[in-house]
Amino acid sequence: MSKRILIIGTGFAGVWSALAAKRLAKQVNREDELEILVVSPKPSLVVRPRLYEANAANMSASLEPLFKEAGIKHVQGIVHIINAEDNSVLVKSASGEESTITYDRLILAAGSSIVRPKFIAGINEHAFDIDSLNAAAKLEAHLNSLASLPESPARDTIVVCGAGFTGIELATELPKRLPTPNTKIIVVESAKNLGPELGPGPRPVIKQALDELNIEYKLGSPVTAINADSITLASGERIETKTAIWTAGVRATPLTQQISASKDFLSRLKVDNHLRVPLYPSILATGDTAHAAIDKLGNYAMMSCQHAIPMGRVSGHNAAADLLGEPLMPYSHESYGTCLDLGAWGTVICLGWEREVKYTGDVAKRVKGFINQTLIYPPGDLEQAMGLADPLPEDSERLFGRILEAVTVAA
Fold first, then answer.
1. Which residues form the signal peptide (predicted)?
2. pLDDT in tens, 258-271
3. Chain centroid offset of residue 227 CA
4. How far is the CA of 82 from the CAs of 196, 201, 235, in angstroms?
5. What are the structural domains, with CATH classification, of the chain?
6. 110, 148, 188, 381: most buried by Cβ count inside 10 Å?
7. Contact 69, 18 (CB under 8 A)
8. Would you list the DSSP string of 315-374?
9. 140-154 tens-digit pLDDT
10. CA 184, CA 153: separation in Å to the nearest integer?
11. How far is it, in rounded angstroms, from Cα 190 to Cα 204?
């Protein structure tokens, strides 16, 4: 009788977990011993890093043909309950039908979601975000509707709440998405620096891009209230706007709270170097659900596809290896890169945890385009997918070198 690997989620980590598990089973010629089952609302990958761009409805990739060819099963639904003690989950379908699925190994790859602080009045009713495909499409429809409204300061002002990675990419992309002329874009950030989590390295470049794109920014300015026509800052300043977009802060899926194990401040499960939850040997966490060390210097995986993809490869490999009696692969990702899109201004690429600026301008922009439009998409070809599911780590600097070579040749 085959053993079941159950994967929750078809984000980057979930997709590559499934492919890596299948890869190992194929390599050792024991595919009939494993059933790989993935649960998610749809058999598709939402290309979440691109949701700051226009045409959000197109930012997904169907997984059905690839999963079918690979022999990976998909159940359409949402996991509501994880019973870690008896190795089962409760799944609810779109129609409301409930079913229980048991597992031999569970890979939690259900990602993360944006946090809307309860102390900010009106945030749930009046703030947009780009955290999901539906949310990004809702924002896009709203932006397109602005031109039909009477001219006013509120109509012609967009406020991006948060000057982190997502907020900066969205703010710098907005000038070419605006349906009305002379629209003002303002970024508000509670911290005293732009890109607080990005460090000082790229900050002068970010500031230059915002200034040249005529984007205002207010630092040290926490938001206290949002309504249909304005936002209010802690200073008491009120900014008229019909478009407040919340981008500040994410947390791991609430499903992590159903597993009685140690977590970090982002609700991510603390895992060992094989991505297993120490108190539950049958459960692995990966992607945005895992607080995982990436080196011996005290650095941990970020909530980004840069780490989710290789983590998925390792978690899928290890779940299969554990059941098949094959060697497990330790997770590591000893180099780090930052590739920040700055809209029409260009892109800034930093390498290393000190985030030293390496590339800006047109070349960097082409690198970002290659990453967004090609590199992070799952391949349609099964043989190529099996090759890319190799859990061995690739050095980020070497990867950037390959991408640079590819975009230079293409140019």
1. none
2. 999 999 999 999 99
3. 28
4. 35, 42, 44
5. 3-113+251-410 (3.50.50.100), 138-248 (3.50.50.60)
6. 110
7. no
8. HHHHHHHHHHTPPP--------EEEEE-GGG-EEEEETTTTEEEEEHHHHHHHHHHIIII
9. 999 999 999 999 999
10. 9
11. 19
